[in-house]
Each structure stands twice: as C-alpha cells, then as structure tokens.
Amino acid sequence: MAAVAGVRVLLHLHLHRSAALQCSFALFPVQLASTRLPRRLCTVTGKISEAKLVVHSENESLLENLNLMGVDVKMARQRQPGVFRKVITNEHGLAQFLQTKGASRKVIASIISRFPRAITRSVDHLEQRWELWRNIFKSDEEIVSILDRSPESFFRSSDNKNLEENIMFLTSLGLNSKDLHRLLTTAPRTFSNSVELNKQMVEFLEDVCAELGGKDPEQFAKAILSRNLYIFIRSTKRVKKNIDILKAALKFSDAQLLALLQGPGAEILDLSNEYLKKNIKSLQQKMVLLGCRKSDIKKLIVTYPMVLYIGTETLNSKLDCLLNGGITVQQILEKPKVLDYSTQNIMGRLEELQRVGYDFKKHGINILDTSRKRFVAKIEKLSASPDE
C-alpha cells in the first residue's frame, strides 16, 4: 500500500507539472498524464527527482504527448524502447528548455526522435550541462546546431560532474577549446569515460615513449593526442597491439617508430588490429609486384601512413588507375598524397590532362594533388597554351 501511495503522489505531481507547462509552453500542446494506475503495481526504486519509476506497458500519456510534439515515435521506440515504459518523464521541460536556447519545434522533435532518453533529464541537469558546454562553444546557437546533428553527444552521459572533471583533465594536457570541440562532436564517449580511464591512456602513451627511448614522455603523449583524439575511445590493449604490429611487420627501429607515432602515424593507432595487419600485408604484396623494395614500402608508410587506412581493393584500384594513366611507381612514392583522392576523381583528372596533352614525365604529378578550382584553372590555361 505504501508503494501505491507513493505512485499516486508522483502521478499527482506529474499532472500538476504538465498543467503548468501547458500554460507556459504554448508551442507544444500538452496531453495531461492519466492518474489511473497500471494494472501491475510499480515500486519506488529511487529518488523522485531521478524519475526511476517504470511500468510494464508503454506510457500512453507519454506517447500522446510525443505525437503532439511531432516526434517520430517509431524511430524513438526502435532506438530506446525503455523510455516509453517510464511513468515520469520531462518531455515538456526539455522542449521548453531547448526552445529558450533557440531550438525550433522541428529540431526539438528530431532530437527526441533520435535520442529519446533526453526526455528523462531534469531541467537542473540540462542547465548545468549547458553551462559546461558554453565554456567550450561560442554560442547557444552553435550548441543547438550540434544537438541537431548529434543529440547523443550532449545527452549520452548523465554525469555532469564527470564531464566537468574530464574537461579539466583534458585542458591540463594542453588541449584547447578547438580540441575539446572536436572531441565533444566526434568522440563524445571520451567524456563518458571516467577520468581515471582517460588518465590510464595518457600514462600508457608516456610509458610507450619511455620504452622506445624517448626523452619527453609528456610531450610524446600530447603530440599523439593532438593528431588522434579518437584514441581516448580505444583500449590500451588495442593501441599496444597496433604498435607491435608496425614494429614487427616493417622492422622499425625504436627511434623510427617513435618519430612515426608522434607524427602523422598517430592517426593509424586506432585502427582495428586485424584491419591494420591485413592492409600492411596487401600493401607489401602489391608494391613488391610493382617492383618496389622493402625500403620503398617502409618509406611510403613513414611519409604517408594514411595509406594503411585505405582498404585493399580501393588501394589497388587507385594504383592501377594511376599506372594506366602513364604515371610511374616512383612518382607515386614521391607524391603519395595523390592516393587521398577517389578512384573516380583520379580517372577524371587523368582524362582531362590527357586531353590537353599533359606530360607527366616532364611536369610531374603535383597537378593531381590540387584543389578543384586550381585544377580547372590549370586545364583552361593548358588548353589555351598546350606547350606550357
């Protein structure tokens, strides 16, 4: 009986709150919550403010409210079905809060559709989190734009204290607002990690530096983080395995590996172990068939480690396209960034250059690694003066 009484009190409070919001938030008509108890009794399992009460069937009043707000209920149910069984939710408070920050009805509905757990956050929680984000982002408008693109980056974690501590820790590493901006928008799980877990990754990188004979472990860790912020959402085991793979497969000395990792090679540390091994092996096989020595392959990876990001079939397609277009393997080794472009892009440019009689032996292949605007201007110039 005590449990039933508790539920009735909560439902009464929810009813009162919904009615108040209906008056103050006219954009979203509010369907008042039913005071009828579910057939199966609920139990109170925490503080009222945490809205922990759930029912075995979906909350019909919540469904009506979300439909009135324009939420894609089907999408929301597929993503986080448990939300629909909660007795107490804060969809109206969330909507009103986001509206005061400049979010439109359409944006609010889209946010809830893709991350329905957002409606379980209290207004106090939202205010605290918004203030933390405003320390990193320039304006409310910018945050609303990010929420519209990636609502999970803001709502995924409910621990504001952990977020604040992570911001302080990452800032202490020398990461600036731009770095934190990238992390929050592309790797938000970094801020869901415990601070201790993120510290373990930094300590691990410092240990790697010491093992390879580096003199400044802190700077080494910062250099890697500045190039690869995603490393915080990988395990130390995965990163260690990738370092071992690079060293064993390419016969790097400690000094060579140290230089690679704190340079552009940092970006390949978060690849899966199997993908990295497969790509190294296929690259070696392809380049040997093209007459390259082991030292050439090693040099290619040192100067352009992103080649290991490219899948086997795609890489082979790009190489064959360049070679068929009259470009030599040696030219590719000297200018490997041409592999950044898609096969379709490479083919299109080669056709344009062949049309105007471009001589790769005489002029090299730098023209392939230019912006679209500069490339078009060069083609127009060559068309007018073919001998240049």
TrEMBL record:
GO molecular-function terms, A-Z: DNA binding
Signal sequence, start to end: 1-20
Subcellular location, principal: mitochondrion
Keywords: DNA-binding, Mitochondrion, Phosphoprotein, Repeat, Signal, Transcription, Transcription regulation, Transcription termination, Transit peptide
GO CC, alphabetical: mitochondrial matrix
The keyword Transit peptide belongs to this UniProt entry's keyword annotation: yes
InterPro entries per the UniProt record, alphabetical: MTERF, MTERF_sf
Biological process according to GO: termination of mitochondrial transcription
Localization per Swiss-Prot or TrEMBL: Mitochondrion
Top-rank taxon, per record: Eukaryota
Similarity section: Belongs to the mTERF family.
Assembly behavior: Monomer.
Protein purpose: Transcription termination factor. Binds to a 28 bp region within the tRNA(Leu(uur)) gene at a position immediately adjacent to and downstream of the 16S rRNA gene; this region comprises a tridecamer sequence critical for directing accurate termination. Binds DNA along the major grove and promotes DNA bending and partial unwinding. Promotes base flipping. Transcription termination activity appears to be polarized with highest specificity for transcripts initiated on the light strand.
Listed name of the protein: Mitochondrial transcription termination factor 1
Primary gene name: MTERF1
